[in-house]
């Protein structure tokens, strides 16, 4: 224990005497994690929930963000503290080989769909900003830009871009939310209300609630954090404290941004009877409320969010997919080593995750808002398997020793499993009715 405490202290203090400089260097994985999480899923689900239902379902966001922190923290702690040096997928695979097959297929499928609505939205935002009626062409430009950024595997460059884009996005949504004058009483009431209101607008309340849970707590993107963390060089128990603080920072930023988006929906869109059907609807409402300057701030923030999310997913999802493949076929790991990027298939997975989603930007495909809500609702399908597997392996004392779950974490993971099964059943019954 003394050795770990000294190591944590050494890493936390670092060699720099400037606290802000140390913080900027240490918060890299959290920056990338929060921008991999935040994107069209949070933008659309939170704004639709706010516009259609005010603050009535704010409790869904609160529960989802709490579960996100607990799930990602347990995932990261397992990878840092297990005594076998296993990755998080190694932990799942040692429970049963079927977990590796599930994660391989699920990550490939959801990585494609998540980038689909992110690329579609980024293309529409760029097209609007440039006053071009060519969203498909702009989507191609987004894909090309992301390829040029991640294809060189320059982590420091990606990290720097993420920090700049995060700052733009945060200032955009936060300023809009503050200027709109949020109803604090309504936020508090909705956070502890625990109710599902009657359906309003094009998207039902239950579907929106499931999409919020899927976008936040159930997202497969929660698994990208350990891979970015590994790239940063955080690989052992001595980094546990920094990892936790880094994650707290990421989740705090997520709370601020999600709340700001929700407030914009509740305080600007809902009072004016506006529904979120396209990004233009949001832009028009904000232009009406704040003028041309607000319109530009909004669309620059939207583009920054979406583009950064595509970068984050295109960087991390191929690592997750390749790692799963190596647990299905261990000989590939023996052949190419522990660095998954050395496997030639990694680049093909990257191309698949980045290029194939362009088909969803073609004319005739579902609109951006519908696609976003539907894909995020699909995230709920994998949450029971993910949380149940995590519950079992994070309590294995032979692997984790003193770093096993506490009672609250076990209770939260069990509740997440039950919640996911319940909402999936409810949504299925509603669709069949």
Characteristic terms for this protein:
mainly alpha, disordered N terminus, 20 helices
Largest sheet, strands/sense/barrel: none
Could you tell me the mean pLDDT?
80
Low-confidence stretches: 1-27
Q: Rg, please?
A: 21 Å
Counting helices, strands and paired strands, the structural category is: mainly alpha
| Overall geometric form | globular
| Binned strand content | under 5%
- Provide a count of the helices: 20
Helix fraction, binned, reads over 70%
The number of distinct β-strands equals 0
| End-to-end separation | 57 Å
Give the H and E element order: HHHHHHHHHHHHHHHHHHHH
What would you say this structure looks like, in words?
- It is a single chain.
- The longest helix has 37 residues, at 292-328.
- This protein has helices spanning 2-13, 19-26, 28-37, 40-53, 58-81, 88-95, 97-129, 135-150, 155-180, 184-191, 205-216, 225-232, 240-269, 279-290, 292-328, 330-336, 344-355, 368-393, 397-400, 407-432.
- With 433 residues, it is mostly helical.
- Residues 1-27 have low confidence and may be disordered.
- The chain has 20 helices and no strands.
Quick structural gist:
With 433 residues, the chain is an all-alpha fold. The protein is 77% helix and 0% strand. Helix 4 (40-53) packs across helix 13 (240-269), helix 9 packs across helix 15 and helix 18 packs antiparallel against helix 20 (407-432).
């Amino acid at each position: 224990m003394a050795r770990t405490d000294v190591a944590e202290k050494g890493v936390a203090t670092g060699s720099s005497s400037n606290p802000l400089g140390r913080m900027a260097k240490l918060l890299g994985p959290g920056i990338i994690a929060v921008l991999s999480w935040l994107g069209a899923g949070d933008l659309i689900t939170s704004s639709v929930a706010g516009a259609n239902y005010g603050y009535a379902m704010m409790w869904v966001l609160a529960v989802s963000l709490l579960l996100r922190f607990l799930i990602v923290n347990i995932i990261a702690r397992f990878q840092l503290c297990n005594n076998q040096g296993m990755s998080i997928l190694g932990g799942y695979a040692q429970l049963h080989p079927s977990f590796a097959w599930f994660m391989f297929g699920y990550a490939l499928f959801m990585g494609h769909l998540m980038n689909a609505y992110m690329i579609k939205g980024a293309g529409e935002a760029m097209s609007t900003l440039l006053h071009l009626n060519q969203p498909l062409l702009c989507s191609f430009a987004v894909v090309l830009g992301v390829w040029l950024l991640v294809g060189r595997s320059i982590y420091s460059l990606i990290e720097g871009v993420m920090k700049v884009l995060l700052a733009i996005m945060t200032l955009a949504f936060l300023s809009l939310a503050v200027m709109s004058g949020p109803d604090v009483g309504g936020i508090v009431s909705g956070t502890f209300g625990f109710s599902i209101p009657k359906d309003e607008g094009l998207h039902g309340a239950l579907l929106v609630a499931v999409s919020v849970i899927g976008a936040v707590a159930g997202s497969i993107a929660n698994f990208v954090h350990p891979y970015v963390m590994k790239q940063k060089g955080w690989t052992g128990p001595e980094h546990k404290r920094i990892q936790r603080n880094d994650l707290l920072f990421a989740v705090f930023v997520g709370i601020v941004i999600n709340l700001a988006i929700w407030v914009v929906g509740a305080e600007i869109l809902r009072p004016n009877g506006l529904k979120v059907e396209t990004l233009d609807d949001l832009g028009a409402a904000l232009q009406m409320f704040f003028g041309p300057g607000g319109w530009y701030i909004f669309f620059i923030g939207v583009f920054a969010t979406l583009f950064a999310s595509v970068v984050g997913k295109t960087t991390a999802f191929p690592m997750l997919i390749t790692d799963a493949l190596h647990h299905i076929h261990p000989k590939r790991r023996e052949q190419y080593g522990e660095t998954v990027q050395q496997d030639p298939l990694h680049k093909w997975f990257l191309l698949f995750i980045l290029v194939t989603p362009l088909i969803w930007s073609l004319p005739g495909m579902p609109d951006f808002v519908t696609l976003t809500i539907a894909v995020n609702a699909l995230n709920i399908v994998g949450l029971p398997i993910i949380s149940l597997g995590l519950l079992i392996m994070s309590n294995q004392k032979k692997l984790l020793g003193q770093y096993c779950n506490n009672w609250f974490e076990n209770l939260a993971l069990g509740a997440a499993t039950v919640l996911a099964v319940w909402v999936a059943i409810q949504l299925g019954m509603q669709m069949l009715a």
